[in-house]
Write the structure tokens for this entry.
Amino acid sequence: VKAVAVGSRLHVSGVSAFGDSVHVVGNVDLDALFHVDGAATFGSEVDIAGKLSAHDSVSFASALEVVGVTSFGDSLIIEGGTAMRAGANVSGVLVADSIASGKVLNAQIRDLANHDTDGLTEGATNLYFTNERAVAAVADTIAYFVGVIELLHAALLFSCGNPVTHQGYDYATVEIGSQCWFAENLRATSYNDGVPITSGVDGFAWPYATDGATAVYDEGGANEAVNLAIYGRLYNWYAVNTGKLCPWGWRVPTDEDWTALTDALGGEFGAGVKMKTADWGGTNESGFSGLPGGGRYLFGTFSGVGDQGIWWSSSSSGGNSWFRMLTSDNGWVSRYSDFQLNGFSVRCVRD
């Protein structure tokens, strides 16, 4: 049939093939297969119990109710409402309003998970996506901003001296001079964006790591759990350099931050006593609660626990980076730079 104009109702019980076009003013009821090589325009409502195959294009001015499976080889243009109870596989979709979990409704995009498409183009009054993957990106973006709002809210309510919860652990904080510091060493196993920090690196691989890595003093040994509980974790400087080691709103202190700390405590030659705990020969007058957690060095060896407390700064010095050290034999705060492969403790300062 080249062209058919139906003024009222078209009922198809078998198989219909139209080489040109079909124009129906009233209702269309299809119990079987409807095949159109050209274009089909329906002014009212279409109820399809079987399968609709359109190799060119189909335009519906009103509502399309699909009970079975609909496959469109070219494009689907919908100006009214669409309810799809089964599956829709469309190579191109142009929607005048919006798509919502199976129907065009209220200019809202709710869920595209059940739509298999190569692309969705811009609607007249709504967002548009170039492909399905953009939906996940939008969801991630929304989740990100929700997280930022929550963090800003927590930051507004935060008062130094209150604990900071990060990755399930509550860190004590202390105000020293004009700065707010963690009063214990970091023990995070992931960056603040949720990406895990490389761990479990053996002694042979540790010196060759050029990405962020973390370890516990005496890792794999009998004292690993005790050392983690007391001293936290050790990190190479590559982990520090990501800028994502501390919780949101906090940072690894710069070399200047460390100098500001020791200046607030009377200078580096006397600040160490005020920063060390009482059971390590200090007064802990500052509340810093420094402990001798040691470090990890070339060839992955551990050294210094019980004698040295070493903390990274985020500042580099040539091919090395600056750090601060407290020791058992004096009350100084020593400033050195060393290899970035070393594993030292980390404190966070409020950003």
In short: The chain has five helices and 30 strands. The chain has a mean pLDDT of 79.
